[in-house]
Amino acid sequence: MGKQVLSGNIFPPDERLPDLNKVVPYVIVGDETFRLHKHGLKPYCKITARGEKSKVIFNYRLPHAHRVMENAFGVLSQIFRVFYSPIAVTPEKCELLVIAACCLHNILRNGYLEHHQQPHYLYDSSIDPPASMSVGPYTKF
């Protein structure tokens, strides 16, 4: 996958930003360890960024974007344990798994099933649920 990222084969074509006449590539948020690449964002060197306000702001916002992405994936992996270990599927199938997990997560968060008369618990009837199981938005399956 790293070779595909470096070659640019994994990314869709560059697109125009909404309401602007500027075409930009799709990118991956990285850190100092990533090498400089058209499809990779990494912070400016602290010495280089010191003199320019725009570079200082970029260096401030990039780790925030990285944290948001890590937190979102952390939430998904807490709910759907399949993301805890490597998945032996093609990148296309993996993309579909992530999209399906996001959709299911949104359904659970919005309480769709509670408002549509669906059964609250779907578990193997031969196995008793733990006595200490607390009822929360993600334990209703």
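(ticket continues) Second input and output from the same batch:
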Amino acid sequence: MGLIEEDRPEEAVSELRRSLAGDPDFLDGHFEMARCLRRMGQYRNAFPHVDACVANLPEDWEALKEAAEIRFLAGEVEKATPLFE
């Protein structure tokens, strides 16, 4: 079981930062970082990570859903709405 599933997002963020420092194009790492930051309520810090996923995987419904949820939770409803369409 991983740190995210164990509800230890702070520790997961530390590991993901190290991983992304070594490979900034690691999209799964960006996706998991966005999820962790969302769980921690750090929505704006999640933007660059979820945006990297959407930019590289524009048809991926999971990335679009995560991006929309994060934008919505951050109060950016106008930016979240097109992602749900």
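Agent notes: The chain has a mean pLDDT of 89. The radius of gyration is 12 Å. Closing as not reproducible unless the customer responds.
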